[in-house]
Write a structure and sequence with these properties.
eight-stranded mixed sheet
């Protein structure tokens, strides 16, 4: 398993395609949630992913302060295979990248409610009640 971290302009065309395909396959197709996956923020993001035998199996993006919140934020956390520790591994790498690239002291994210426990295990705490985002229950969290 290999971890990679790149800014948008450093991504190859194949890496960008594979990242966007994984996100679309899970967030749009699997979760049956038509929403604007391509939201214009990827160009400003640090992209973090895990690959296994050349295939991206988990990814997320890290945004600097002001892009999605007043804090450095993590979003679009996704794993191709569930319950194998991929989400935890990529999240830890995302936290590391947030601190390394943006000097993050606090990190913000909006978690799908069913995955709240994953984030709590890494030190995130809920800072809101449940709300709907694109028809899916979420909660705002802060590390």
């Amino acid at each position: 398993m290999e971890c990679r971290t790149k800014r948008f302009h450093e991504l190859t065309v194949d890496e960008l395609y594979d990242l966007l395909k994984l996100r679309t396959d899970v967030f749009v197709v699997e979760q049956k949630c038509p929403y604007p996956e391509l939201d214009g923020l990827d160009r400003e993001a640090i992209h973090v992913w895990l690959s296994d035998e050349g295939r991206i199996v988990a990814c997320l993006r890290v945004m600097d302060r002001g892009a999605e919140s007043e804090y450095v934020s993590i979003g679009r956390v996704v794993a191709a295979r569930r319950r194998q520790g991929l989400g935890t591994r990529v999240l830890r790498e995302g936290i590391r990248a947030a601190r390394e690239y943006f000097g993050a002291e606090h990190i913000y994210l909006e978690a799908q409610t069913y995955a709240q426990g994953l984030y709590e295990k890494q030190g995130f705490r809920a800072v809101s009640g449940e709300f709907l985002l694109d028809g899916i229950p979420h909660v705002k969290m802060l590390l």
